[in-house]
Design brief:
Helices cover 43% and strands 21% of the residues. The protein is built from eleven helices and eleven strands. It has a five-stranded antiparallel sheet with strand order 5-7-8-10-9, with helices on both faces. It has a two-stranded parallel ribbon with strand order 1-3. Strand 7 and strand 8 form a beta hairpin. Helix 2 packs parallel to helix 3 and helix 6 runs antiparallel to helix 7. The longest helix is centred in the N-terminal third of the chain and has 31 residues. The chain starts with 5 loop residues before the first helix and ends with a strand.
Length: 354
Amino acid sequence: MKKIDIPRFTRLFQEKERHRLKRIKKKRTKKASRVARGKSKNDRISIVIPAILDLNENRDKFTSLINRIQDVLLNGKIFLIDHREMKIITKEALLLLTSEIERCTTIMGIKLKAKSKFAPSNPNIKTLLNKIGYWDYFNLNLGRADEKEDDSELYLQIVGDTLVSGEKIGSLIQFFEKLICFDVSTKDKFSDAMMEAAANTVEHAYSQKMETENIKKWWLTACINKATKEISFIFYDQGLGILNTLEHTQRHIRLKRLIAGWVAKGMSKGGILKELVTTNLSSYKDERRGNGLISFKTFIDEVRGGELTIYTDDVSYSAISDKIINYKTPINGTLIAWKIKVNQVDDKCIYIKS
């Protein structure tokens, strides 16, 4: 029988025990430190994204989600964003959600991390988030492994910028031209309308006070639906909103007089928004400037078969169907949603490539 070295065995046992106790102490110290800062695992706040999100029927749920994100992130609390319940989300709501997460995390200097267990379980939502570049926008590597091959809808991945960039606007035209042909005149008008919207955002959408609260940015995305033969794009900024911008304008004398007249007549917010889309209110010497909304409407009128909807504050106006909707809850900034049915033949200004 082999003789056991008792002293050596005892030393090994004691050494292992010291390491074990050291690990326990380190774990307890770390936990106590988190608790002292009010950031223990038990205090972690879960932001659950609802099953259905849009800016119309489920608007209250959407605005509640945005308010919760602001409350949690801007107060520096430990948080996680749970996407598992998501089943339906419109492109408009998704663009606003992306912008708000970016705004809050940028202001607080928070770097986002991804955990696959909190990704959506619905395959359609997985595909949408991947195609529209939701994860890529935040530099998160998540969910690409099980993406289904489906080319019925093509998306321009979410783009954001703080400047008027011809390159970024040009990427929208290039995206559409994968399947769609524009005649020269139509292409120029569309490009001008987009540049005007971006320029208005940079120059007027954000007040001086908002420079410390926002990141003075605009966002856009676009979609080609091959099944319905429809193309669309969405442009959004988190500024004052069109109606509030009017109240903060200092040099648009003519504009102020018109607004004052509309208010005196008891016109609703939606009615004022309608007038803005259909009336030339440029305060610029160059009459080609300051007419972003009119440019969009003119473009839709000319190509036919489309719609232009503007969401701002607690109202929306659909320019072609001439429909005004008032909501109980507002959104920040202004969102322009544009879509048209593409022609099947090449004798129109926009048509599908043969």
